[in-house]
UniProtKB/TrEMBL annotation:
It comes from Aquifex aeolicus. It holds the Pfam family Ubie_methyltran. Keywords: Methyltransferase, Transferase. The keyword Transferase applies. The lineage of its organism: Bacteria, Pseudomonadati, Aquificota, Aquificia, Aquificales. This is Methyltransferase domain-containing protein. One of its GO terms (molecular function) is methyltransferase activity. One of its GO terms (biological process) is methylation.
Amino acid sequence: MGYRTVADIFSQISGTYDFFLKVATAGRIHSWQRELVSLMNPGGNWLDVGTGTGEVLLKLGENYEGLRVGVDPSLEMLRIADQKCGSCFFVQGIGEALPFRNGSFSNVSLSLVFRHLEDKMAFLSEANRLLAENGRLGLIDIGRFRGTFLLLLLMKTLLRPLGVLLFGRDRWSFFIHSVEESYSIEEIENMLRLRGFRIQEVRKRFLGVVYIVVAVRTASGT
Ligand SMILES: C[S@@+](CC[C@H](N)C(=O)[O-])C[C@H]1O[C@@H](n2cnc3c(N)ncnc32)[C@H](O)[C@@H]1O
């Protein structure tokens, strides 16, 4: 599935996205995002890739010392983000080819985006290129773990009526597929190391369904 198809899906659900995410995570998404922010560098330009409705950038607050920049291929998601955060900068684009100069950011974040990326290694190369020395890359996402089959079962049964009601049958199938395609933490750590990152912090949340990983750029990652 190409990034245009993925972006189209998110454009179509942009109006209900925040509500669904809150329900699906029992409101926990906000505390995970705040936790991620607390583990990153305390200032400097911040890039949020796959920013969606801009929630990570919002959590940095108005007084954040540095530019707050969000990238997403979906214009509809960016429109909502722009309404929520007037002092943030939003750019339409994809994580695999980012239009910024080398070393321009202290922090790069992805919240619930990594498993949707078409080319994960290309993104990690870009994150490495854009980060200054000791810059941090922070990820929140659904990982593959022993209970993944249970989560999939829930999505295919209990959560299905709400998912189909809010998003439609095809788009709900897309979310199920994206969970089936998720990576284990070990796989993610290996990918990060291969692209010049040192693992700083790994936390599991939501009974191990969700991971928060923070890595530090230590070497060039080409
Ligand atoms: C599940 S949403 C996450 C939004 C937001 N980060 C959050 O935590 O609520 C995934 C977002 O990733 C974006 N996306 C999909 N493919 C992408 C890509 N290749 N590069 C960057 N963003 C992408 C989608 O358009 C969508 O807004």
